[in-house]
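TICKET #2291
ISSUE: user wants both folds in one file
ATTACHMENT 1:
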Amino acid sequence: MADEKPPQLVDYFVVAGLAEGSRALEEEQQPRPARPGEPITDVAVIIRSQGEEVPQGFTCIETSTSGHPVDLNAGLLNNPQMFLCYKRGRDKPPLIELGVHYEGKDRPKPGCQLLDTTPYSRSANLAAGSPGHQRTFLTFRRAAEPPGHHTLGVTDICLVMPSKGESTPHTFCRVDKNLNTSMWGPALFLCYKIAVAKDNTLVYEAGLLSRYPEQDSESFPLPESVPVFCLPMGATIESWPVGTKYPLPVFSTFVLTGASGDKVYGAAIQFHEAFPRERLSEAQALRLGLLSVVDRRPVPGRSPHTRKSICVLSHWPFFDVFRKFLMFIYRYSISGPHVLPLETHISHFMHNVPFPSPQRPRILVQMSPYDSLLLCRPVSSPLPLSGASFLTLLQNLGPDNAVALLVAVLTEQKLLIHSLRPDVLTSVGEALVAMIFPLRWQCPYIPLCPLALADVLCAPVPFIVGIHSSYFDLYEPPRDVIFVDLDTNTIFQSEERKLLSPRALPRKPCKVLLASLHSLSQQLDELLSTPGEEEPPELVLSDAEAAGARRAQLELEARAAFLRFMACALRGYRSFLRPIAPAPAPAGRDAGSLFALQGFLRSRDRAYQRFYGQLLRTQLFTQFIEDCSFASDREPCLEFFDTCVDKVQVDLEKPEDTPLMELDDPRGGEHTVFITPPEQPAGPDGAEPPARYRYDGFPTLRPELLEPPRDPLVAQLCQARSSAPSSPAPRRTKQEMKVAQRVAQKSSAVPELWARCLLGHCYGLWFLYLPTQVRAAPAKLRALQLAYDVLRKMEQHKVVLPDEVCYRILMQLCGQYGEPVLSVRVLLEMKRAGIVPNTVTYGYYNKAVLESKWPAGTQGGRLRWAKLRNVVLGAAQFRQPLRQRQRQRAAGDPPGARAAAAPRPPLHRQTTWAGRSLRDAVPAPRLVKSGSLSFPARSEGGAAREGPGEPPLLPVTPTPPAARRPPGSADGSLSDIATDDSGGDEGPGGGPGAGAGGAGGVTPRRGLAAKLQQLLSPGKRPPRPSEPPRDPGARRGSEQRDGDPPPPPQPRRSPGGTLLRPRERPESTASESSVSLGSELDLSDASGGSGGAPKAPGEPCTDGGAGTEPPGLEVLLSSCSRCPGCAALVFDEELMAGWTSDDSNLNTSCPFCCRSFVPFLSIEIRDLRRAPSPPPVPPSPQGPVLSDRRRCLELDGTPGTPGTPGTPGLCNGCAETPPPWRRERVAFAYLCPLVLRKELESLVENEGGELLARPELVDKHPIIFWNLLWFFQRLALPSQLPLLLLGSQHAPPDPQPPEPSRVRVRLLWDVLSPEPESCPPLYVIWRLHSSIPPRLHPWGPPAPPFSLPFLEALLSHVGLNEVHKAIGLFLETLAAPGAPQTLHRSIYRELLFLTLAALGREHTDIAAFDRRYRSALAKLGGAPGRDELRRRRAQPPSARASECRRCFGAPPEC
């Protein structure tokens, strides 16, 4: 099978920064809002009652945010009047945290300093005025690194009094410890703000500096807004003091959403580099402070710098991998010199690093001797791909705020997420839209919004937007937005828009969600604790790997917690979906017509009506209903959610034991692909080349240094190949595969369920092939109706279907070929069978009903013409006796002298499903038994006697008397078949007058004797056509399809002892059945749950037995395999019983030695197209066995031309005359239907469904082809597979201009090629004694003990229901001298085949034989012992084998 090409890892590499045409943002066009230019570096406490004043450079906080006076200890009795002061500057590292410490109650945080004294060396205890109170001090933490231009620090401090109605200002952090510890006075809290304090900065819109590749891909062109997202706060020009340390690069991520909902992930790093002063204008230099305002002279000690960004775009959120790659590229640009240019490493990473696949799950990329990264395949998950991090959400917001945001997202509120860390914004934003799965956010979503696109915050629609916190230093935020500060773990709600309380959610699911999130938050805190310094480095490294695995597990549990809540909240929603049954109205896609909104709302508790009422009115829910009602790309995800809904229990107050998400993490694989760094060019004389590449800043990419793609079609090859459009929904979803696997495991323990499970997968194979069958059929409606009949047949036989693929494929085909009414009938059949359609099936149904053209509501003209036709034919029937009487009077004959005229064809009921016009062909003739009492009696000219001037319905060719054969054999056996000649062609075995007698024909008296013989026969009577079959798995050998030749004569059965005697004449003995299964089927047959129908007019025939045209090829198939351990023959039902539920296991188990082995299908292909036609052989007095070659071939079932005398072939199994045709034998593995279905789905997905209609299937994938052919023929399912052989290598082209050839397929129960020295089985010896030529090649000589009296004795015991005596006699004979040492067939199999050969298939009830055999074996269990019987292979088939044979039926031939 073709290897699927993996997707591309990186699509584009982009460099963004200040371009030539960059425009200044609004910040530069309008006056700046007041904002601090320097961070706070010191805090102090002064006591004014002690005469302390504000130190120089400090600012004292004397009022709260609303203007109330703030004394730090106003509640104390002797108020010392203590105030808080702060100082700004850049002379030392800024403060990054403030706090309050209660001495004796808690410990100071690590790295925090205690503010214990005032600037005047007095105690700074805030509770100093009350000796009985605990000592309270302020704490602060300073940045450890030297001061930089972009260092985060405290930029503002304020005090709030909640009792005065004051709240924490937006973007401020609040210390939740009261500064006033006394019992009197208002509570006072300290708040501070952290930001980047900078001045002398110009902000411009970012532009594109360079990119690779330079040409856009057809599937994904580079968006123009990428540079803006790379630098969300704009491309800046900044003025730094000389000697300022460069800040570390800042990593950020963003998400771009296309019009179709596809996401593209971007990873970027922002860095600073020097900017040439000469490129600045005078106005810019003044704004930056580089020129003095008075005399315009350069200001010494300052230098300009700019901000740039490098970015990669990908469809995969490998953020950690991209961060390492971008950091390597950045370090490469600021170091050097290097031998290779920077462009070489970029192009090498984009072209030579493959995407991880199942075959190579780990990619280790060595970028340099010191830099490497590991790329692992994403975890296979049924959830949509996302860059979400639920742990980051919990870490920054906590469980309670996370649940509050869940309510906000479900009710579609305006959410503005902000933080000073741009990489956190994308992770949290992705988590917010992922926590509401299966709902999908439909409104604007920008997890990292650039400053240039900040106008979206004023949109009148709901949105989820993430933005840098410095936005609030530049603009006034909107009033109707809910602010989420990730840095302070706070949610700010405006008065205009209040959130629903989490209490509005369903109580028990919300309680379980909160408990799970609190537990995960505690585990995350423990995980983030750093290891002790005393641990050795190797332990620290191993702990880091374990922590990574543990973090991934916690991430999965957090996602499962939100998934469980959504499953509980939407439980039962599928029962309120409304399928489109009648012709859809113009508003058919409206949510109200697709879903019972009020019914769903009434099904919920009244306490939660407000929440559900808001949820049902959102675009989230409306789109969800449309996705569930119509086919979409979200079908696997929605189906997975349905399985989660079935698993959860709403009333539980703890999570279920069964996990909702079962993921297969491929990162634990051992196969790792190593990618080496780019090769360095060799210098002269093999010396190391000089290092020539050094960069002052990040360069503009030079196209001549970039390596081009190795293949110009790499973009097309890297895209994942999908199923061919001509194969509608053939592949099961991953969830359906898992469910089918679990069903197979449970069914393997119950024999009946196991057989039905295998049968269901076989039908799944045929429906997977159905699109190919319908495309090849000339009458599409008839082919679809046939598939619908097969569905009904499956339901009647209670076939266990592990999935809904059968219904789904038929529904989509109905939509594809414009048959919506049939699609409705399929849905009704599903409901009648108790199957609730899942999301995938339901979507294809509604799509077929909505997009197809419905028939007119009034009766069409075709139906009216059919009614008129019936009226005319009825009137003609009444007038026919009058015309006959007039003709008799004109001829002068007395009344009644002539035979009754042939009856008119019956009236046809015209329907909208399979109606025929007046010009359509008459249905194929039905089959009747020649031995019945009601066979038609017509003269040879009866077919030509129609109405005056009316041509016959089908032309009838008179058959010569010499070639005519009666429909029944001389003894009136029931296996003979005649054709009802009310209309249709005559087969080669019967003429127009076969019902009334003829040369070698039978009289009605003989027919009556045959009917009485049938009624008195001890075998099982075949069920009447009007009655349901008693055994759906039994296959009647006497049944035959339209146009097939009659089988060889069968022996006459009688209740007397003549049943056990060899016949004197070959035509009175039972021969091997020549009934072959082709693609022309009869659904009225009740054998083995199979179904079929007569072929459409003009459809190619695949059975050479029909009509007078000989088959071009004859194929013999046998699944009987030899066990390599004990050399026993294992037959088809035993092979099925030995298969396992593993869809990757090819082995079966031997029922005798329990050894596992791979069974094989044995195939013999006979090419009959080049066989010459010798002159007829005259009759010989020696009898028809050896002289009448045509008669021998008919008895032997060889692939000669039926009805052609003198056709050469094997006679009695002896190759006395070399066969003139080509013969080929091959063998391939015999696959379990579970394995075969998995392989066929993979084949259709990789190579398309068209391959199933081409002869390449036979040559390239022979195992799949022959197994499909075996199962389709075994279940009598129509297919075009046999015709593919005519174009394969097994059938070389005929040099002569051939006529349309046909293929006949025969299924054999026994081996196809026996061992030459092996003793023939008993049924072959019986046929040899009966002078019946065997079908196979020469057998070895029969063993002396296996004589004719021995066989007659066995049959006598079996006939008298004394099977235990037959077993005992057989065991005694095996112990006699001359008996074969090795018995390849079991005793059960020998007796069964002997009974079938002597009595005939139609007179043998195999199920009754099994019961008698088991009963007889129980009687013998005490004599030689059960172990001895088992050693001698006397045990019957297992229960699983019997059930498999009952469901599938036995193959028609031994």
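ATTACHMENT 2:
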Amino acid sequence: MAQCVQSVQEFIQDSFVPMVAVLCSEDAEKVTRKNNLNFSELLRPFCRLTSEGHIRDPNNQVQGVKNLRISVNNVVTRPTSAPVSGIPGPAHRKLLSEVVSACQPAEGVAANVITAGEHDLNISDRSLKASVPWYSDWRDTLTELGASKHYTATTPWFEAYRESFLQSMPASDHEFLNHYLACLLVVSSSEAVPVEQFLKLSQEQHRVQHSGEYTNPKWFIPNTLKYYVLLHDMSEGDEQRADSVYEDMKQRYGPTGCYLLKVNSRRATAGADEQIPDPWSQYLHKSSLLSQDLYEDPAPTAVANNSPVENNVSSAEDDGHDTGHKEGVSNSLDNSHPLQLDAPSDPGSLEALKVATSEPRKPSPATGPGTSHGACLTLNDHDRIRQFVQEFTSRGLLPHVEKNIRQLNDQLVSRKGLSRSLFSATKKWFGSGKAPEKSISELKNTSGLLYPAEAPELQIRKMADLCFLVQHYELAYSCYHTAKKDFLSDQAMLYAAGALEMAAVSAFLQPGAPRPYPAHYMDTAIQTYKDVCKNMLLAERCALLSAEVLKSQGKYSDAATLLIKMTSEDSDLRSALLLEQAAHCFINMRNPMVRKFAFHMILAGHRFSKAGQKRHALRCYSQAMQVYKGKGWSLAEDHINFTIGRQSFTLRQPDNAVVAFRHILTNDSQQSGVQQGAFLREYLYVYKNVTGSSQGSLPQLPLPCIHSSATRVYFGHERRLAEGEKQAATHVSLDQEYDRDLAAMWRDLEEQVVAAANRGVVPGTFHPTQCCLNNQTDNLRFPLAVVEEPIIVEVAFRNPLKVPLELSDLSLLWEFTPKDFSRPGDGVDGEPVSNEEEALCPGMAQKEDVIATEVIPEFSMSPEETKLARLRLLPHLTGQLHILGVAYNLASSPSTGEPANSVAGSQSEGEGLLVRGRQDLQIQGPRLNHTKEEKTSVCHGPDRRLDPTITPPMPLLEVFFLQFPTALLCGEIRKAYVEFCNVSRVALRGLRVASTHPDFFTFGGGATTPLTPVSPAASENCSAYRTLATPPGARPGAAATSLASAGDFGPVAGVADIPLPEGALRPGESTQLPLWLRGPDQEGVHEINFLFYYESAEKGGKIGHRVLRHTVFICASRSLAVRATACRSNTLPEEEEEGEEEEGRNGNMLVFVDVENINTNEAGVREFHIAQVSSSSRHWRLHKCINVAEDKDCKLTSRERAKLGFRAMRCKPQQAAASAAGRYTFADLNLGNEQIISSTTPCADFFFRRCQPSESRRGAAPAAGGSFSHSRNQGAVPDDTAAIVRKCSEVDLDIIVLWKAFVVEDNKQRILEGQLHVALQTIGKEACSLTQKEEAQEMVLLKFKPELPPPMTRPSMEQLSHLIKTNLHYPESYSHAFIQKSLCMVPVTLTLSNCSLAQVEVFIDLRNKLTSPESFEVHGSFTWLGQTQYKLQLKAQEVMCVSLRACFLHAGVYNLGTPRVFAKLADQASVCETSQQTAPPALIIINST
């Protein structure tokens, strides 16, 4: 419960004070009226004693009376409006309502924040008081108070209500606390005969009290104290005469029964130099309310069924606004459940509220705040009045009370025959056991029982009240307790309840607390008042007193329960105040119950609203909102915000209403669509009224929600669609999703091409081009846009409601600062320009000369839809642009089914509810995490995506592709065309292209490109290769050779320069170039990316270059699989082939090519033809085909395989010299009737553009070629023995298989061409055209053996066996006459060839040592004549012939291959001699003649 400014004891003492009546003569009234006061008002600020008074109890014990206050009122004989039943009348309710309305929280005062658990409650009140000692877990809330850290909020409106309620309590016959004890008779000293006037007033008082004509006022005792006051006006009267009259009065009435009061020492016309305080102002407003309203009705109002409802009374004003239109206000805001939202069909719309609050309030006739009081009184007069009250109380009133207590005590003792003193007999009465009292339910209703005035029960009660008024609480408690028993025995329940109530209060107020507070007395009294007596006024008074006592004892739960029980439907104002106090009890508990606080604040706000207290209702809902906000209680938040919005609108606070409705619409509401539609219409109506008067700037709209971080900005024109057969470059568009890996790939490609354009170095100022900015791109720098090129901003709108939204006239808001970048320093040419003013009215002329702004006329959003809006700007000037937000019109869709009597329905059909506003695009940058400070704090960098810099014009390239395929066979060659168009006003140059698959395409070499027609209208089956017809006299199987360099066909990988006519492309021009494509070697779908790079012909711009992206997807299907193996030939070239003897010295080998058709009839392929087999190498070339029929193609249908054999020879000397210069020897072996020149475009292009040549893959191509040339010329031996040995078995030979495929499409036959590459690296090791990755995938599950150990550093036996190649020359048959000569001797020549690049020592052993007897049986035995062992030295690649003679004894078939040859490197003694590879059988037939 909220804390009082007073303590509980002070509050109770001031609630029950001695009542003093006043009767004044007319002249006395004139004296006081000079100060705009009557006599009772004159005394009111001084009615509290400043000194302690004393009385003696019946036992003659002195009792102190501290801080006593008396109540002085004029005698009013009009009957009160309060009925006997205790139900407040209309005037009484009006009085309390105005008291509460007049007391509001101070606006602009610092709010006090109460921390309860995890909630910080912001409660705006006027004062705070520290009174509860155990709030140690609460934080300091208001540091300016400083003295204590325990604070609770006060509610001054409740204290004002309580004070007015207690003061306006009607006098009752069952108690005497508010009966008059004395009467002041006031006569002016200016009267002719003051004594006669005193006599008249005394007779008038006697007549009022004893005639029986008046029920009001009520008097405490028959012998009322009459105190005679002579009022002397110091400014006019004769002071001596006044003194003499006063002396006569003392003789007549006694010195303690009269008083001379001198006032008006200051003339009213005196200057205002001296500032005299005005202590009457705070009392006069309450006094005027009491005097005008409490008795305003001329007669009591008849109430049907004794149950009037407060809401049916038309209360005067509500917080400064007339509430006369009850149909439009109370039905919508008051008569509904507090947690039930208004239905959309509720006729009480905000428009009705607006009508209800449109009439201004009439000023109250009460005394205004500007009226001065006490103008004729000085400070001495104040002291005299204070002294008068002190004298009257101490010398008149208290002795009078003491005398009556003694008399009543004596009467009671004498009547009941009790002991001398009632006080001394208290223990005797309550000491013995007593019979159990009956419960309230068992007692019958005898509330109408009346005791006579002389009844002893009433005398006991009268004595108790007298003791209570003079703070003798112990004796008062005893008397109340005695009276309670008597009343209960008589079943006088109203009297019993009153005795119980005051007994409990007396027990609490006793000093030293001799007994605990009997809370059950109060509970019984409240129940009796409510249920038996039906007197809610007394029940409410009892509850207010008990709640304060319980709260002071820390029993907040009991106090809250008591207050909640007192709520009822008969008084909304009382229920609202008590519910609010119950809520404060919950928050002040030891463990604060915050949710109960909020819930009961909502209930209190609802009852305040029904009572017409709109400001208090708004305050209660606002305080409850602090608890429910952000806790997931969405329905409760919606209800609170909706009510706050409507109450704020009623109180003419439209800005607060807009804020409240905004919260309803922006949160993810769980309301139904119909309810959300009602929310939206209410908001639009309020918003329209707010913005109707002020048109200075566009206010913020809450709908639809904008996901600012998802905003994307695109610079440049949108992608042009395909034109006929032309396929435009894909580039970047807003339809593409951002991929971080793809962005990194494009950045790498751009770095490559920029490095190529800058001599291999990436400039330090390089930043990758970002055409589309989003929340994943780098937005720390200002993006660069180009003048006259559009800027497209994609904004993500989300409709959180379940009703559709209609947006119109949607456009961007921007601010632009012109700059001329051609001047040094980027000087500012003009002032900033904005379109915010034009956005207020879409029909106004826009600043099209600066930036053209696109306006979307209609933009509809379905319920709960997320929709993207693309808004376009076209800058016409250079400078700095800042995109601020979006402006649009918001309207609710007419399809929401709004009723006719709602706000929207009340509008004309053509007008509709449409408001215009804006939303700013505020994007939070990325969190910085580089430095230590940034890591330890939350620091965000800037996000510049909406702040582009508009730069001078730049060239703009568009690329179109013609006849570009989407599907290819693996290795297929296809010819397409590319068209480059410059659509800007600036020439471009330096056109380059980089790709992730440089082996996929080629623009051709510079020397060969003109030989290919550039027109796409060429024949459909025109070959992409350059071909020659086979000469008629050409030798079958012979190879045609040619030389080519990789430099002739552009770089092998990376960036390719695109030739332009005259080196540039002028504005508006276009050029078309051929483009050859080759299908990837691996089947599947391949993503191939192109990055076109170009620069402006005009240097010095802020943008150094521009790029254009293109992505294609190629589906590759299987074609052929080629496997090749190289074997060493053991034969030397025959002598009859002229011109080849020199070549034979360099060696030859056999190449076997295995071609398989692995196509599964995809793309309609019928068969493949092997048209040609070519080779490319620096050291080897194919010489001739050894197994192909003449003039016949090799045809392969599905799954067929062909094996081709070729002889390869080392290049001729002139070709070898060319290879040293980096040129490759191409050898073509055509298998048909035409020859494809493989050393030209496109065959050579794709050969050089394949993954890498075989030599480059090994990483030793330059070193190997160099050592070969160097060793042949100078005979130097490399130091690396292992490399020398390995070189003997290496082959640098690439095989190119060119094929044709016949495809049937649409009953037409097409011829496809292609080429496959196989790189032979090692003799005896098979190479395949398919990638090793594919084979590894197939074999990954078949690995049963452990991995091979790493290769040895020493040469293996197999490698050493290839050092020497041997060959035997002998006749196939030899005839000899064994009859004539028994020995047959045949000459044999052994040819030794050194295959290495170093000197080799050779050992020949001719001793016949057969390894097995079977060999002897098969081949027979012979012997070698002459020297049987040879030791020879062979230089690098030297060929040496050794003459031998074989001796035969008889005819037969013999194997001459018995010589054993050993070899080792000459300078490596540590290498063991190794037997040369076993040669094939060399059979000779010896015939006998």
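RESOLUTION: both attachments delivered.
EXTRA DETAIL ON ATTACHMENT 2: The CA atoms of residues 1399 and 1435 lie 4 Å apart.
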